[in-house]
Amino acid sequence: MVAPTRNVIRRDRVRERREPRHRGAGGAENFSSSFTALGLLGYDGAHVSANVVDLTSGLVLCAIDDRIVLPTASVGKVLLLIEVSARLTAREFSGYGILDKSLRDGAADSGIWQHLQAPSLPVADLGALVGATSDNLATNVLLRQVGLDAVRARTESLGLARTALLDLVRETRGPDDAPQLSVGSTAELAWLFGALYRGQVVDEVTSRRVMGWLSLNTDLSMVASAFGLDPLAHRAVDHGIQLVNKTGSDVGVRSEVGILRGPRAVVSYAVTVQFRDDSMARRLRSLEAMRTVGFDLLEYVH
């Protein structure tokens, strides 16, 4: 009988049913404010999911419906960056290799390449654009280069069963298209970022490259809004904390996954909220709940 691989064992553990909790070592209360804020959204009809892990002790600090699969918008682009980085490590193509944008790659909304005159950019620069501004055009050009099937195969090889990049970025989604750009469970996403932090996704070089791209992220509007960091420059340690994160926004969806390192601890976290986006008040309540999670994270690591 063939012994199960580490990824298979981890995947089976992730699939096990777990009760929501927010207690730390010795029964001390942790993340009770987060639990309350997200719970109120749930009572209002939203789907909420959260997972926070202390990467030193391995203790799960917060687990709220962290096995359910929810839309995660642009968070799934991390899976594309992993595949691109792995190919750069294997030298299947060069980071200096030039890729052209075309009309079929066009996608509005996030990103700046659509506003630039440059018709072509190196592969590594496109990875930086995706990490920094979740660039939709750069995402589609990279997907055309590596293929969605390869991203899916890489995702499965990591043992991720409930997290996937489903499609390229589309301005409109028809009946024949995937209904979401990406989906995921917060348990798997928090594990993935923890593995990236440890250099365990494919290999250390691949993981470090992905973390470098993601460290450029300029979106601090959700969980990270509580950290007081400069959205345009936070790669270095600032008042003892350092952040690497990826966000996803769509109509009725807000999702964030990241690593927060402080003087006392380092944690991986993932929070997703799917809500009825029929009023500004409901949207702001969702963002405020995510910000509350951020305050709890900051208190824990700092």
UniProtKB/TrEMBL annotation:
Is Hydrolase one of the keywords?
yes
Keywords in UniProt for this one?
A: Hydrolase
Q: Which Pfam families match?
A: Beta-lactamase2 (PF13354)
Supply the InterPro entries for this chain: Beta-lactam/transpept-like (IPR012338), Beta-lactam_cat (IPR045155), Beta-lactam_class-A (IPR000871)
Which terms in the Gene Ontology molecular function aspect does this entry carry? beta-lactamase activity
Show the ranges annotated as biased composition (Basic and acidic residues).
9-19
**Domain Beta-lactamase class A catalytic stretches:** 52-271
Its BP terms in the Gene Ontology are:
beta-lactam antibiotic catabolic process; response to antibiotic
User: Where is the region Disordered?
Assistant: 1-28
Q: Which domain of life is it from?
A: Bacteria
Identify the PANTHER family for this entry. Answer: BETA-LACTAMASE, BETA-LACTAMASE-TYPE TRANSPEPTIDASE FOLD CONTAINING PROTEIN
| Protein name, per record | Serine hydrolase
Organism of provenance: Terrimesophilobacter mesophilus
